[in-house]
Sequence to fold (310 residues):
Amino acid sequence: MEGFELSRKSAIAQIRYAIPRSSSTVKFGLLGFARCNVEMIRCQFDVRLSTINQRLPARWCSSTGSRPLATAAWSAQSRIEASAIAVTTGLDLFLARDLIARKLNGQRKNLARLRASDLRAFDALRGELDKTEAIEQVRGVEARAAALYWSAWSSVSVRWRGRDLSRIPKRWARYDSRASVLTGAPRASTQPVNSLLNYLYSLLEAESRLALLAHGLDPTLGVLHADQRNRDSFALDVIEPLRPDVDAFILDLLEDRAFTSRDFVELPNGVCRLCAPLTHDLALTLPHWRALMQPIVARLAQTFREALVN
Fold:
């Protein structure tokens, strides 16, 4: 899997869907087929985390001598110092504007693809972003841009095979809103498109966390996303510029694939979940997201180093 360098178009073109139910082997490749056991996908994060763990500086060891594998156990003092540097130098605002600017630029491309009727309001928000003077203002611009962006997805539809259209809930046939009817937010998706988006966003977040650890950055110390216990806020910050790439990938998938009622399941509480082998196919796009993530995190690491030196 490490050898795959996938463009979004080549990735979507090469996913194979006719996978025997009894097989745990997923067929996927750029030129022909490459075999990858599903169990290998599940364990690759542990392997890569272990490798990163061994490279972490000794000063990050706990009192028992163990390194903070998968926990990013930075000391409270280190976190306070990092926060102070970011705030006093204006680095937090710079990073927030840069990350959201990249996100809005990507969303603008998707809006053009969706043939949004009027892009002037979105373009005005993009211009307003450059003039923001506080993190809250950046968040406000992002939220207003998101409202315009997701409203343009109302034209998106899901294709279903043959009789499967009669076997699914009616609300699954078209995209209505990024918000779940259960939570009023993207989490706990109640329809297929949002479930696809959430699944790939979660893969992107995992790659973000690994990349931050590999570059010696604390995944929990957020800039845009407020620090919360048991949440990798900075990992969520870093994926913002790449969310439009995931969105574009999903648009390709919706154009190229006719889904079956077996690809999704509705839980008793109304939550829509993806099923295998669709989940396996999507997991095999991890190298693509990893390749997109690396230069963003490397640039962030260089920015932090320069701030520390200065």
